[in-house]
Amino acid sequence: MNFWKLFGLENAETNEKLLFFLTGAGLIALGTIGIASPQWFNDAMLGAYDWVLHNFGWWFMILGFALLMFSAFMAFSRYGEIRIGGEDATPEFGLFGWIAMVFTVGYSGSIIIWGVGEPASIMAYPPPEPWPVQSSLESLSLSFMYIHEVFPGLAMWYPPFALAFALTIYNKNVSRYKISSMLRPLLGNDDYGKLYWFVDLASLIAIVGGIAATMGFSAQVFTALLDDVFALPGSQLTYVLFGIIGLVFLADVWLGLHKGLQNAAKITVILAMVSAGALLVVGPTLSMINIGLDATGVWLNNMFRLSFYTDPTTAGDWGHYWTSFWWAWWAAWGIFVGSFVARVSKGRTIRETFVVLVGVPGVLLWMQHGIIGGWVLSPGFAEPVSNAVASDGIPAGIVEALSLTQFGVLIAVLFVLVITGYVITSLDSTVFILSSITLGTENPNPRNRAWWGVLLAFVGVMTIELPLFEAMQAFPVVLAFPFTVFIVAIAAASYIAARDYYRETLDGTAEDTLVTQRAPQDSQEPAAEDD
């Protein structure tokens, strides 16, 4: 077999081959070091993590707010009427399949993992007094969770990438399906070849940081559940579970977006709703509802105060270790989630895409975090769960909460299934975008996608061996930080693309009527091989 065809690179340019092998070699080196010297790797990552957040936590906060304002402007100004792909474009996916893919790809197993971990951690280590707002510690803890994973977090990091990709690739007819293509409306097509290549390299590294953290969190939670809830050999069976995930992932790759990822996303959404409903029934229901509602009031009444909380009068970085960490993780995920959302949203308007990317998931996440957060913050749960998190990490806190819950083993089974579904859909969408960026096409071939999956699985296996759960937090912060310098330029370029596209296609007799024509995609490969 032809060597390049084996890796799905037979039609790739030299710089694209270099991009694939250089990033792949970095992943292999990362995984090898982590497996061979987990304690050293753990300490090195945590050191880098501390340095970035202490010195540049402010940057993530300011950038996040700027992107929030930008996203809202783009969605609700006249540019929100622009249809991705042109006026004649029709949606490729049904409403439920579209929402399911956006939701499962964008929000992952953090709903369960951090839905327990963040409120319980804040209970164990609250912000220094005086607190940023007056409330009970339980409501303050859950309101921070709402800030970070419901709003404004949702509206900051995904929409700018989705809009930039949609406008440049599908409406401005930029032929190469790459992150660097988002900069072409700003910089032009010529004279920036090396810069564009480095932008793509930085984006691949940042994407790897985001998905590596998610896989690492999931792996250590799997191990804890298998060990302590089911009394099984956790580490060994987690390897087996990741092997099964890999097989399902490969099947999804060959089935393609329509039959593979879309169906996996639908199943995962259903499982997530079933697990949340079951937990609400068997848990301390009344306390869960009351805590969730009270925290909602604290959140809505103090949204911007909590979003910018830095506690500047003490020597600590409490605010940065929560808010800035979350914004860095969103930034790492935003690159591939936004790009993927643009891919599956052709035929929808920018405003529709914003609503489905922010509004619908926001409601679902508010409900689920209210249930999960209310569960672990209820009387009889809050103290033992927060103590377990403080002494042994978030996986131990999840195990403790399950041990205190009636039918906890059943809930644990549902949690394993839901997190597995999120890992599969996140991995599938990640490798889809990694391969797309590498090859410059919206329909990358299955062979290249499968290789990216193997490389990411190798990193996932490495994370099982890391001694501290907290080391996973370093991946998105450290690896996404260099890419943040390009995010402002990408936002500016997407505005220019929207403005120019609107002017070029404007009906001269009706100022607010948008007349668009679908841009030809001559350079794109047909989807037949995947679907």
Automatic annotation (TrEMBL):
Protein's UniProt keywords contain Transmembrane helix: yes
Entry's Gene Ontology molecular function annotations: transmembrane transporter activity
One Pfam family of this chain: BCCT
Domain of life: Archaea
Membrane topology: Multi-pass membrane protein
Main localization (coarse): membrane
Keywords: Cell membrane, Membrane, Transmembrane, Transmembrane helix, Transport
One annotated Gene Ontology cellular component of this protein: plasma membrane
TM region(s), chain numbering: 18-36, 56-76, 96-117, 155-174, 195-217, 237-257, 269-293, 324-342, 354-377, 409-438, 450-469, 475-498
Record localization: Cell membrane
The keyword Electron transport belongs to this UniProt entry's keyword annotation: no
PANTHER family: HIGH-AFFINITY CHOLINE TRANSPORT PROTEIN, HIGH-AFFINITY CHOLINE TRANSPORT PROTEIN-RELATED
Name under which the protein is recorded: Glycine betaine transporter
The organism of origin for this protein: Halalkaliarchaeum desulfuricum
